[in-house]
Every structure is written in structure tokens, then in C-alpha cells.
Write a structure and sequence with these properties.
Strands 3-6-5-4-9 form a 5-stranded antiparallel β-sheet. Strands 1-2 form a two-stranded antiparallel ribbon. It has a two-stranded antiparallel ribbon with strand order 7-8. It contains 2 helices and 9 strands. The chain is about 20% helix and about 35% strand. It has helices spanning about 1-25, 105-115; strands spanning about 35, 50-55, 60-70, 80-85, 90-100, 130-135, 140, 145-150, 155-159.
Length: about 160
């Protein structure tokens, strides 16, 4: 009789432990490769906080383009540009603007759009217009070496 009570108690403890583990488990919404981890063991998480970047086989790397606000009337979707990655001089990646905001915004709104992880690393002065472009592939070549794009990389876009 005591053995049954112990077994029932152990089963209950095991079920409780499994429930705790399941509550802390994250499942990716699709197959892919983890490219950027924003969490460290012991770090607290908040709802909606990005933890990892997941790249699928057909994923494109998005480039957020911040241009001076006075350029807005000259911008249109499909406009060609080139992206020079900071730290890799004369390494240009061709891009086309595929999304352009209708409005010109101030630095506070631009920082909110970028998110807390990167906003404080980007200097702003005056009004800006936000645009997006996709980079071809998930990597680039510089001086004969292949490098993978990483979240937060910065550079200069010439339109």
C-alpha cells in the first residue's frame, strides 16, 4: 500500500515537473536555422521580446533604410540603391527599395520602429523617412572571404 502511494506521489511530481518544463519550452513556428540568439542563460524574458532570429531556406535578409526626410518626394518603390556595409569598405551590395513609408517622422518614432535592441546605436538628426530593401542571399563577400549577415549590422545606403 505504501509503495502505491509513493508511486502515485512520484507520478504526480513527474507530471508537475513536465508541466513546468513545457511552460518554459519554446517551439519554432517553422523549420529553419537559428542565425542570431538574443538570450543568455538566466536572463529574464518579457512577452514579445525577440529571443532568436530564425532563417528558413528561402528567407531574405531585410535591410531597414533610414534616409533624410527631404528625400521622400524623390523615392519610389523599385528604386535601385547600393549598400556598403560598415567595416567592409568598397563592398557594395545592390538593393532595390521595396517599401517606403508615406510619412516623414522624427527621431523618436524612427527609434521606436527600430526597436530597443538597435535604436540607441543609430545616430539621428532631424526628420527621416523609413524604407526597406531585401539583400540577395544571406551572406556577402569581402576581400575574397564569405561572411554571413547578422542582425544589427549597419552601413550606408546610396540611392
Amino acid at each position: 500500500m505504501a509503495a502505491r502511494r509513493n508511486a502515485a506521489s512520484l507520478r504526480s511530481q513527474l507530471e508537475y515537473a513536465r508541466d513546468l518544463l513545457a511552460a518554459r519550452q519554446l517551439t519554432a513556428p517553422c523549420d529553419g536555422t537559428v542565425s542570431d540568439v538574443r538570450y543568455r542563460p538566466g536572463q529574464s524574458l518579457m512577452p514579445g521580446q525577440p529571443i532568436v532570429t530564425l532563417l528558413g531556406p528561402e528567407s531574405q535578409v531585410a535591410l531597414i533604410v533610414i534616409l533624410p526626410g527631404y528625400f521622400r518626394p524623390q523615392l519610389e518603390v523599385g528604386l535601385p540603391a547600393r549598400f556598403e556595409i560598415s567595416g567592409y569598405s568598397h563592398t557594395y551590395q545592390p538593393v532595390n527599395l521595396n517599401k517606403i513609408a508615406e510619412e516623414v517622422v522624427g527621431p523618436t518614432e524612427a527609434r521606436r520602429y527600430l526597436g530597443q535592441d538597435i535604436a540607441d546605436a543609430v545616430p539621428f538628426s532631424g526628420s527621416v523617412v523609413l524604407a526597406e530593401a531585401n539583400l540577395s542571399g544571406q551572406s556577402f563577400y569581402a576581400d575574397g572571404q564569405k561572411y554571413t549577415y547578422a542582425d544589427g549590422m549597419q552601413g550606408r545606403v546610396q540611392v
